[in-house]
Write a structure and sequence with these properties.
Structural class: alpha/beta
Number of strands: 7
Helix content: 40-55%
Radius of gyration: 28 Å
Length: about 325
């Protein structure tokens, strides 16, 4: 039997909040100024979704920010437009409404998927959840896609929020899960403090993990050493400079011979007195003897004009 919802106004005092169906509990649910202005100007365009309970009250399913806007601004009407699912609505149907409502706002983040499927697995097997909902998310119908997201739920809320907003990638987040909580939080703090992008986050994780393991200490203890604290607390260095200095000293400590080779390489190149449009680089970590010469040209036409000499150099 299909349980059709009812659309009508209900009093906000009759609505109960809980995290039972909340797919982003790591977020603050204070309404944005833009949402408040929109509701104040033209009213609520998109109704909240609630589930009617046997005692006559309503449990909020979707629309925490919209509800909070009505609760915050005393000039907004107390009744609020709500799509009401009746008491007999089965969990699978409830989940379908939650998913479709969220997709109106945009694609689900890895964290939202993790929470959504956590609720799914309370009521159905993972294979059924995959069959019912992965096509809606435009994913292949494979249970492992669901299973691989669930460990994200074990991360601290601050990390979950940064995964949600795209500041930490899902794969890196799963690597962080392999660390003790203190080390995770230490690295996360540095990610935020230095505003590291994905590539530098991965490099910092790899370097600190290898160096700490080699010295038989935790990452947190390692990064509390004076050399690293001096960089992180340096009053004159900006964030990119701190990031570069931190990664450089970590690399030198991990591979002293690589650091010495880097110094020799830079000294040799500087003695070549190259023109500004020319640069020379080496292979990553000096894994190969080959070097790379880069020539910069202002236009493609200039490259065409000099192509004969370039080919001769290449030969």
């Amino acid at each position: 039997m299909l349980h059709s919802p009812t659309l009508r106004q209900i009093d906000i005092k009759d609505i109960d909040l809980s995290d039972e169906w909340n797919i982003h509990p790591f977020l603050s649910h204070e309404p944005s100024p833009r949402l408040l202005h929109s509701i104040q100007s033209i009213g609520l365009l998109r109704p909240i979704i609630v589930h009617k309970r046997p005692d006559g009250r309503y449990q909020l399913l979707c629309g925490r920010n919209r509800l909070r806007a009505h609760q915050t601004d005393k000039q907004l009407p107390t009744p609020i437009n709500a799509l009401i699912l009746d008491e007999e609505t089965p969990p699978q149907r409830v989940l379908h409404y939650i998913l479709e409502d969220q997709l109106i706002s945009g694609t689900l983040s890895p964290m939202e998927k993790a929470y959504f499927f956590k609720y799914c697995l309370k009521y159905m097997e993972v294979e059924k959840a995959a069959h019912c909902f992965l096509p809606i998310l435009k994913e292949k119908v494979q249970a492992h896609i669901i299973i691989r997201t669930l460990p994200l739920l074990d991360l601290e809320q601050g990390i979950q929020k940064n995964i949600h907003i795209g500041k930490i990638g899902e794969r890196l987040a799963l690597d962080l899960l392999l660390l003790p909580s203190d080390d995770r939080l230490t690295l996360h703090w540095i990610f935020q403090e230095l505003e590291l992008g994905g590539g530098k986050q991965k490099r910092l994780l790899a370097l600190t993990k290898d160096l700490a393991l080699g010295q038989g200490k935790t990452i947190t203890t390692l990064l509390a050493e004076p050399d690293f604290v001096l960089i992180l607390d340096h009053p004159e260095m900006n964030r990119p400079q701190k990031a570069s200095a931190l990664l450089t000293i970590l690399q030198k400590r991990l591979s002293p011979e690589s650091g010495a080779a880097e110094e020799t390489f830079k000294k040799t190149v500087s003695q070549m007195q190259l023109p500004p449009a020319c640069s020379i680089s080496h292979s990553p970590a000096f894994e190969k003897d080959e070097v790379y010469v880069t020539l910069r040209f202002d236009t493609l036409k200039e490259v065409e004009n000099r192509l004969r000499k370039i080919k001769a150099l290449a030969d």
